[in-house]
Amino acid sequence: MRDQDMRVDSQLSEAEIAEVLEEASHYPEKSGASIEGLKVVQKYRGWVSNESLKQVADLLDMSVEELDGVATFYNLIYRQPVGRKVILCCDSVSCWMLGSDNIKQKISDRLGIEYGGTTSDGEYTLLPIVCLGACDHAPVLMVGDELHHNVDEAQLDQILNTRAS
Ligand code: FES
């Protein structure tokens, strides 16, 4: 959860810097904390801008290209602004077989957004994701920090804070 929603100042705060360095202290090479460092920034800002990424790279003695490669590979790091809650809809095989396409379409209809879109009130961003590791509870959604198992249409009102279509 974001401590300071959508920070706009470009410099990392003292708290962010301290947390990134704290994470780095657990590794023989600072670069070992690359994902944690990016997560720190995302916790405070909701996403990781180019400027923030450069500052984290400097703190971890990495090149921008190296850290950007990590951020690109790890699909829970957002490199563009997202809504206050990101809805991750698993589209891997178990979830697909048990109706994830239908669930995704119901969400799209309800919120008026497609994959990659953010609601006009900035509340939700909808993204696809590969297997969330809960295939025996398919179909699976992650909304913010919460994983939702065995999702069906009837649950969407509650999951999406009872927003009606
Ligand atoms: S296929 Fe969806 S959680 Fe594994």
Q: What can you tell me about this protein's structure?
A:
With 165 residues, the chain is an alpha+beta fold. The chain folds into 2 domains: 14-73, Arc Repressor Mutant, subunit A (Orthogonal Bundle); 85-159, 3-Layer(aba) Sandwich (Glutaredoxin), CATH 3.40.30.10. It is built from 7 helices and 4 strands. The chain has helices at 14-24, 34-45, 50-59, 64-73, 93-97, 100-111, 156-159, and strands spanning 85-90, 124-129, 141-143, 146-148. α1 packs antiparallel against α2. The protein is elongated.
List keywords for this structure.
Arc Repressor Mutant, subunit A, 7 helices, Glutaredoxin, 2 domains, binds FE2/S2 (inorganic) cluster, alpha+beta
Short description, anyone?
The protein is an alpha+beta fold and 165 residues long. The chain has 7 helices and 4 strands. Helix 1 packs antiparallel against helix 2 (34-45) and helix 3 crosses helix 4 (64-73).
CATH superfamily of the largest domain: Glutaredoxin
Taking all residues together, what is the mean pLDDT?
92
Give the C-level CATH assignment of the largest domain: Alpha Beta
Shape: elongated
Give the cofactors and ligands.
FE2/S2 (inorganic) cluster
| Largest beta-sheet characterization | 4 strands, mixed
Which radius of gyration do the C-alpha atoms yield? 17 Å
What spatial order of strands do you see in the largest sheet? 2-1-3-4
Helix content: 25-40%
Q: Structural class of the helix and strand makeup? A: alpha+beta
Number of strands: 4
Fold topology:
Layout: H1 14-24, H2 34-45, H3 50-59, H4 64-73, E1 85-90, H5 93-97, H6 100-111, E2 124-129, E3 141-143, E4 146-148, H7 156-159
Parallel strand pairs: 1-2
Antiparallel strand pairs: 1-3, 3-4
Helix pairs in contact: 1-2, 2-3, 3-4
Residues 90, 92-95, 131-135, 138, 140 line the site of FE2/S2 (inorganic) cluster (FES).
